[in-house]
Design goal:
Number of helices: 2
Largest sheet: 2 strands, antiparallel
Oligomer: single chain
Distance between the termini: 16 Å
Strand content: 5-15%
Length: 110
């Protein structure tokens, strides 16, 4: 049995795995509406990358501020900002690695 999403085609051996209801995606506001999954995933991914970038920029700004005016910055703020930036970078790297590995597995199974 074959299911087609635009140019993507999925082959399933068990017809029960296909389902009968349309794909509903819950957006970030909480409204349940039918939206293109590609556009929503793309915007989610871009938002996550922009958030990671802003955290990295925030760390750079705080590091510069602690060097130029040490009394204006609490050392705990620097530590927390650096930990958040490192965690977001590690998460982004993990997501990228899993996406690449998943794509390689899909392309090898063709």
């Amino acid at each position: 049995m074959e299911l087609s999403f635009g140019t993507l085609q999925l082959n399933r051996s068990n017809p029960a795995h296909l389902g009968t209801s349309p794909i509903n995606v819950t957006n970030t506001i909480g409204k349940n509406e039918e939206t293109p999954v590609k556009g929503q995933f793309e915007s989610f991914l871009l938002d996550a990358v922009n958030e990671m970038n802003s955290q990295q920029m925030n760390v750079s700004k705080i590091q510069e501020q602690i060097i130029t005016d040490p009394d204006s910055v609490d050392i705990h703020d620097v530590t927390v900002a650096m930990a958040k930036a490192k965690m977001s970078m590690n998460l982004a790297q993990t997501v990228i690695d899993r996406l690449v590995n998943g794509w390689q597995e899909l392309s090898q199974n063709r």
